[in-house]
Amino acid sequence: MPNDPAIGASKPYGSAKDLPSYRELSQQIQGGKLLTLFIAPDQRKKLIEVEEQIERLIRVVDDFYDLLGSRNWIFHDMLSVDRIEQLLAETADAESAEQRLIDLYRDPEATKWWIMRLRAHDGLRHRLHQIERARDHYDAGQFDSCTLQLIAVMDGFVNDFEPGERKGLHSRDPDDMAAWDSVVGHHLGLTHAMATFTKTIKKRVDDEVFEVYRHGIIHGSVVNFDNVIVATKAWNMLFAVADWATATRKAAEPKESPPTWSDTWATLTRHAAYKRT
């Protein structure tokens, strides 16, 4: 789906500032600031606070990708902006940031909520038993079986998502997974990780790997992937694929009429409040 209906096919975003929703919100904020010079001046302070929160979100997303995108970590919509901002502030290098991110995924209270939200997608709801089994294996340190379960879930879900295509995740070109108006659509996001996911590996690899080499893992040529990094990247990719599906549906919806000022204000405040959690 297009990043902008007038432009054509989806392409990865260079920055979170390129997201259509950010551009629209930014324009609405600027218009609102001008309006509150004359009408409802008491709302101006709140509007500026929302603007600061949106700018903060953009900064955190871009900083995350600058540090961890090359390692195939994807910023998805379930990640707490507060926790990622703290992680970035308290780590000096990608390796330590990666470990802190893994610690976040290993927190059962956080990920329990993330898994519940996957129910919004029919294809994931029908695979919830596999996802929950993967979580049990993850908690038990059975990282290889966890990874295999999650690969199966992602392949099957993407295959079901667009019945006309009938192509699992493994059959998709990276460009097929460009996400419209989503933080996973960053150029170091889902499409970047897909290049590794779909990489063909025919010769046996005995060294331990730290990426989700789907082809090599499924076909037995990658034999040493039983570690927390690979399993956590599989979780990370699952949530990113769910975001891709949400964004794809959103892009296909009819364009709504321009919102009123009251609609815009309600949207801005809800957005800012959600991203603080």
Structural class: mainly alpha
The sequence of SSEs as H and E is HHHHHHHHHHHH
The percent range for helix content is: 55-70%
Distance between the termini: 29 Å
Shape: globular
User: How much is the average pLDDT?
Assistant: 85
Beta fraction of the residues?
A: under 5%
- The tally of helices reads 12
The total number of structural domains is 1
- Strand segment tally: 0
Largest sheet: none
Task: Report the radius of gyration as a whole number of Å.
Answer: 20 Å
Uncertain segments: 1-9
Task: Please describe the structure with a list of short key phrases separated by commas or semicolons.
277 residues, 58% helix, mainly alpha, 12 helices
Question: Topology, please?
Answer:
Elements: H1 20-35, H2 44-68, H3 81-90, H4 94-105, H5 108-117, H6 122-125, H7 128-139, H8 143-161, H9 190-197, H10 214-218, H11 228-252, H12 261-275
Helix pairs in contact: 1-2, 2-3, 2-12, 7-8, 8-11
Report on the architecture of this protein.
By secondary structure, this protein is mostly helical. It has one domain (19-252, 260-275). Helices cover 58% and strands 0% of the residues. It has helices at residues 20-35, 44-68, 81-90, 94-105, 108-117, 122-125, 128-139, 143-161, 190-197, 214-218, 228-252, 261-275.
